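Continuing the batch. This is chain 6 of the set; chains 1 through 5 are on the previous pages. Same settings as before, nothing changed between runs. Recording input and output for traceability.
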Amino acid sequence: MAVGQSQYWGQGFSPRGEKNRFVLPADFRQTVREASHGNRMLCLDKHHKHPCLVGFGESRTESFAEQIAKEERIALERGEPFDIDERMAQVAGFARATFDESGRFVLPEYLGDQVEVTDALYFHGGGYQITIWAPEVLFTMGPGWDSVKSACRAKMAEHAAKAARK
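Output for chain 6:
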């Protein structure tokens, strides 16, 4: 069982496979499973700011009320409007995708459409969540993302080399 906020570190690349499935990289499977109370359950949602998805385990939902209360307090201190119902719908509107022992899962089509997923995903650990990118979208990001883009290219090359050996 996960205690506290789970931390996701690592990278991975997955082409779209048979039966329209992607593979959650090994770097993340155990952490996601522990953060989902022993279940193979990956929570997925559109990133609130960037053109990518986020992935995390179910235990993260335990921090949503505190997160929203903090955001509301900050908005009120700044004299800005805050719609708690709208924010809760945004935060809690994630999809759940089960994955098998090999990490295979089906990405909900509506989420893939929102971030222009075609035939591959790049997974990048980022502390309390995994960012999940369509590589072609990631490569359009500004220079602040150069190290992430380099890691993606390296994982793509690694995958291509493995596929060529088969």
